[in-house]
């Protein structure tokens, strides 16, 4: 599989594990925790087994196990200690690392088992906020630093999206609240990052609101079609990579207001990284920005 990354630099290990490269070198030299291979120019590089061991070592160390003690354990004993500590309650950190390993191995079974273990203790909502959001944020940073390939990021994103869709499907029998407003969820043209928007849809549906999920890359003009069917509409969108520049965002918001927010009851709620380009007074009338899904939900 061409996109499967199985060879890592020490900087990659630092990015993935959160353990500084300097500390990794000390652990290697003093405790022989990892045994890197070296290139012809004497540069360290590591395989998947080294990555997995480092994640396990980091987990144990963060749970109070001294490195000197970990160094005396075999790989099998390290894994057993990780499972034992995770079973006593700190399953979140263990699950976080397990999801990472499922990504590097493209291991759907490991992803599924880890998710099902979490469901034994937590609700889907708790898993999304406490595990999936931090995981997606870290995957984005790893992709930006070329530690992982787009295939890895897409693997994680696709599986998380499946879980959101499954939980939305379970809500289909719920009737919307009578006389409730309608939420229209969409992404602007050329915007395809829809996981956050899907989860917002889940949050709205679970609270009994009427939603229309239109998905990715929707031309602004086509949104006017929904105005003919519903009176009180709140549009919700994510600006992750589009529009690109601050001026583009301002123009988009102004055009949106003129075309779609003519009624007093119409609103536009926004999320996403691109909102960082805006100042509070940049938002037109009836347009609101939120720095997290949780804060948006509080407005319901």
Secondary-structure map with pairings?
Elements: H1 10-17, H2 21-31, E1 37-38, E2 44-45, H3 48-62, H4 67-70, H5 75-87, H6 91-105, H7 108-119, H8 124-144, H9 150-169, E3 182-188, H10 195-206, E4 210-218, E5 233-238, H11 246-260, E6 267-271, E7 287-289, H12 293-298
Can you characterise this structure?
This protein is an alpha/beta fold. It has two domains: 10-168, Multidrug-efflux Transporter Regulator, Chain: A, Domain 2 (Orthogonal Bundle), CATH 1.10.1660; 182-298, Cobalamin-binding domain (Rossmann fold). It is 51% helix and 11% strand. It contains twelve helices and seven strands. It has helices at residues 10-17, 21-31, 48-62, 67-70, 75-87, 91-105, 108-119, 124-144, 150-169, 195-206, 246-260, 293-298; strands at 37-38, 44-45, 182-188, 210-218, 233-238, 267-271, 287-289. Strands 4-3-5-6-7 form a five-stranded parallel β-sheet, with helices on one face. The protein has a two-stranded antiparallel sheet with strand order 1-2. It is elongated and about 70 Å long. It starts with 9 loop residues before the first helix and ends with a helix. The model has no long low-confidence stretch (mean pLDDT 88).
């Amino acid at each position: 599989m061409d996109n499967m990354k199985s060879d890592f630099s020490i900087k990659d290990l630092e990015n993935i594990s959160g353990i500084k490269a300097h500390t990794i070198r000390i652990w290697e030299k003093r405790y022989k925790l990892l045994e890197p291979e070296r290139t012809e120019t004497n540069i360290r590089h590591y395989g998947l087994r080294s990555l997995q061991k480092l994640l396990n070592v980091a987990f144990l160390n963060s749970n109070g196990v001294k490195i000197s003690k970990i160094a005396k354990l075999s790989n099998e004993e390290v894994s057993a200690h990780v499972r034992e500590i995770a079973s006593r309650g700190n399953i979140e950190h263990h699950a976080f690392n397990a999801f990472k390993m499922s990504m590097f191995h493209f291991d759907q079974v490991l992803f599924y088992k880890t998710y099902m273990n979490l469901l034994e203790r937590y609700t889907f909502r708790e898993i999304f906020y406490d595990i999936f959001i931090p995981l997606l944020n870290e995957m984005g940073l790893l992709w930006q630093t070329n530690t992982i390939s787009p295939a890895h990021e897409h693997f994680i994103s696709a599986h998380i999206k499946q879980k959101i869709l499954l939980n939305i499907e379970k809500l289909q029998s719920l009737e919307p609240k009578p006389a409730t407003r309608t939420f229209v969820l969409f992404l602007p043209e050329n915007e395809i990052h829809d996981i956050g928007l899907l989860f917002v849809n889940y949050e709205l549906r679970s609270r009994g609101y009427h939603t229309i999920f239109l998905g990715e890359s929707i031309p602004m003009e086509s949104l006017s079609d929904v105005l003919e069917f519903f009176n009180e509409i709140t549009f919700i969108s994510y600006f992750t990579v589009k529009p690109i520049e601050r001026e583009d965002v301002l123009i988009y918001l102004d055009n949106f207001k003129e075309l779609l927010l003519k009624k007093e009851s119409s609103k536009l709620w926004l999320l996403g990284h691109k909102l960082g380009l805006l100042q509070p007074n940049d938002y037109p009338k009836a347009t609101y920005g939120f720095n997290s899904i949780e804060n948006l939900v509080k407005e319901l």
